[in-house]
């Protein structure tokens, strides 16, 4: 790859990464092309060298934001080798995750937007939901019950994080995270090790 091609690829990747952070933090409707390119330190006119349209960029950024979550979830599960589900729950329902939506799980911030978007966004969202369900179900016994438990767990993780970010009372926000984490850990089966 020539020097200019390498620079072009690096610029495109920078815009995509920065846009993925923006859509996690602010949603898909707010960031405009001029704002995104300015933050990436590129000219507005250069945008079309990298993406066909704003919609093309947002679709790709949504897919990138969603895909980043699997590695984080797997790392969280590995941190507690004796109880990987507990590690995952603690990381997901922790203050650090709640307070950093730009780098947090995109399922929380992009759910409503994916539901209103076209097929590409829905497919990317569904792919990530399925990946998380497989991961969570794999932390317990392999059964239909484990799959249902994974659905309940993922729904509780996403919902509690969403609500904890949306309320104005810090005490209620903390309580949502703690209470849901405690309930999930009490009722969810635990694997003896993480195997992914």
Structural description of this entry:
The protein has 196 residues and is mainly alpha-helical. It has a single domain (3-187), classed as Orthogonal Bundle (Tetracycline Repressor, domain 2). Helix content is 71%, strand content 0%. The chain is built from nine helices and no strands. The chain has helices at residues 3-26, 33-39, 54-78, 84-92, 95-98, 106-116, 119-137, 144-166, 170-187. Helix 3 crosses helix 4. The protein is elongated and about 55 Å long. The model has no long low-confidence stretch (mean pLDDT 85). It comes from Streptomyces gibsoniae. This is TetR/AcrR family transcriptional regulator. InterPro entries: Homeodomain-like_sf, HTH_TetR, Tet_transcr_reg_TetR-rel_C_sf. Keywords: DNA-binding, Transcription, Transcription regulation. Residues 32-51 bind DNA.
TL;DR of this structure?
The chain has 196 residues and is mostly helical.
Describe the largest sheet.
Answer: none
Residue windows where pLDDT falls under 50 for at least 5 positions: none
CATH homologous superfamily label? Tetracycline Repressor, domain 2
CATH architecture: Orthogonal Bundle
**Amino- and carboxy-terminal Cα gap:** 34 Å
Topology pattern, helix = H, strand = E: HHHHHHHHH
């Amino acid at each position: 790859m020539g020097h200019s091609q390498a620079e072009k690829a690096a610029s495109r990747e920078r815009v995509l990464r920065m846009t993925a952070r923006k859509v996690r933090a602010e949603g898909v409707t707010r960031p405009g092309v001029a704002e995104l390119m300015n933050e990436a330190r590129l000219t507005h006119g250069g945008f079309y060298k990298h993406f066909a349209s704003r919609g093309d960029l947002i679709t790709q950024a949504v897919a990138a934001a969603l895909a980043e979550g699997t590695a984080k979830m797997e790392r969280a599960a590995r941190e507690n080798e004796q109880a990987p589900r507990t590690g995952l729950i603690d990381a997901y329902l922790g203050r650090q995750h709640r307070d950093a939506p730009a780098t947090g799980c995109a399922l929380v911030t992009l759910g409503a937007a994916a539901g209103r978007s076209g097929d590409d966004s829905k497919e990317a969202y569904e792919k990530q939901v399925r990946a998380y369900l497989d991961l969570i179900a794999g932390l317990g016994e392999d059964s239909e019950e484990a799959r249902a438990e994974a659905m309940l767990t993922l729904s509780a993780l996403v919902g509690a994080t969403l609500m904890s970010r949306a309320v104005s009372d810090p005490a209620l926000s903390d309580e949502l995270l703690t209470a849901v984490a405690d309930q999930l850990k009490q009722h969810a089966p635990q694997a003896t090790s993480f195997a992914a």
